[in-house]
Amino acid sequence: MADEVVPMSRGLNLLGFLVCVGLLGYAWYAQVVLGLEPCPLCEFQRIGIGVLGLLFVLAAVHGPRRWGARVYGVLLVLAALATIGVAARHLWIETRPPGTIASCGASLSYMLKIFPPGAVIRKVLTGSGECAKVNWRLLGLSMPGWVLIASACLGVLALLANFPSRRAVVRRVDIPSRQ
User: Which of 4, 50, 84, 139 is the least crowded, having the fewest Cβ atoms under 10 Å away?
Assistant: First the structure.
C-alpha cells in the first residue's frame, strides 16, 4: 500500500486548544478558589485566550489543507498579537508609580451596560487603579506577564501548526495484519 501523508496540524491545533483550556481553567481557579477578582484588562486577556482556543479547536476539527490552514494561521496569529498587546499594556500599567494611574473605575459589566462597545474598549485599554494592583506572582512575574508569554508561545504554535514545512508531516503506513 502507498504511504498517506498526514499533516501534524490537527494535533498541534488540538494542543493549542488544550493549552487555552488550561489557561482559562487556572484563571477560573484563581478567581473562584484564590479569590482574585479580575480587572477589566484581565477580562480582555481572558477573552483573547478564549478566542485563541476557539480558533484552535475549529482548525483542529476542520483540518484544512493549504490555504485554509493558512487562513486559520493568520487568524490565530492576529488573536495572539491582540492578546499580547493587552497583556503588554497591563504590564506597563503595573509598572507605573503609585498615583500616576487614575483611581479604580467601574466594572466591565457595568461599563458594557452604560457605554457603547467602542467607548468601553478605549476606557479599559487606558487602564485604571485596579489594573495596577499586583496580587499574584509566580517566579517574579504577574499574571499579565505569564499571559504575554503564553500568547507568544500560542502564536508560534499557530504558525508551526498552520504553516508547516514540507518536513512537518507524518507518514502513515498501513501494516498488513497476519492471518
Answer: 139
- Residue 76 belongs to what domain range? 4-172
5 - beta bridge partners? 171
Residue 178 lies in a domain: no
Partnered with residue 141 across adjacent β-strands are 138
**Model confidence, pTM:** 0.72
How is residue 157 written as a grid cell?
A: 504554535
Does 49 fall in a domain?
yes
> What would you report as the CA-atom Rg of the chain, rounded to the nearest whole angstrom?
20
Per-residue pLDDT of the chain (179 residues; tens, 9 = 90+): 333 334 578 888 999 999 999 999 999 998 899 888 888 788 889 999 999 999 999 998 887 878 888 899 999 999 999 999 989 888 888 787 766 565 555 566 666 676 777 776 666 666 555 666 777 766 878 888 899 999 999 999 999 888 876 544 555 555 666 65
d(CA 28, CA 30): 5
